[in-house]
């Protein structure tokens, strides 16, 4: 009979073989998402937090303006005083308006990458540059964290109704892990691919299409109004025939009624999105003459003092260019407010 000492090398080899068959810690299935942090409690971020609370998730809400978390506290969320309070979350959604805000929150010395433990998933729902999406994915990976770019199509009203469309990009396992949460936020999730930057670019492209549609609608409504045709009748013709898309119905209605406030997305944010799209187009040597034109039209809205209005105020600009004056201001309260430069939005 072999002695125990004689068999030690054999047993060690068997143990090594069994250990090699086990999945690595990176391959082990991660726990289900139960606690979600929401960073940025504007209209969209607030809607995300409310939806997730209703779905039974534990929600930790953070905003630099601490007052924004108070309504969510009443509904059951925990208010984070600092970003470090999000460290216990399984997933963190950032709903921030631009690259500068997200860089500060994610890459700062006390940012998400610094304070989140390995394994936590960061989902960016804002409209940011493809370059930043890729940079964040790399930075999170270095720290053992995961990143998914998941910008959304739709406004805060649709967010409250869970009718957004989500564009997800990132490593397949990260997208799969985030998907149950993303499906709660919208009516459909489009998986764009492994590159989070491509999800960001598709969102920018969608916003270019929307802005171009807004400019076109504004111009044709101005034409018909100046010709004496009822804009509501024109709207019914358009949306009841060949132009019955969501953008035509939603934003066409805003232009006809002059409902530019409160905004779904303000003109300055739209300027930012078209600027990012044009920057990508320049890198790829893709001329985008319509996008360039609409970018400048949005800048003109801001120059007139309409920076606080919805980007569908492109319709208001088209009306003003025809000499219709304040006829398209609807219920914004700007009709008798004096020069645009003096209007407080």
Structure, explained:
The chain is α/β, with parallel strands linked by helices. The chain folds into two domains: 35-194, Rossmann fold (3-Layer(aba) Sandwich); 202-342, N-(1-d-carboxylethyl)-l-norvaline Dehydrogenase, domain 2 (Orthogonal Bundle), CATH 1.10.1040.10. The protein has 14 helices and nine strands. It has helices at 4-21, 43-54, 70-74, 99-107, 112-115, 130-142, 156-160, 172-185, 196-226, 231-239, 246-257, 267-283, 289-303, 314-321, and strands at 35-39, 58-62, 78-79, 91-94, 121-124, 146-149, 152-153, 164-170, 186-193. Strands 1, 2, 3, 4, 5, 6, 7, 8 and 9 form a nine-stranded mixed β-sheet that branches. Strand 2, helix 3 (70-74) and strand 3 (78-79) form a beta-alpha-beta unit. Helix 6 packs antiparallel against helix 9 (196-226). The chain is globular.
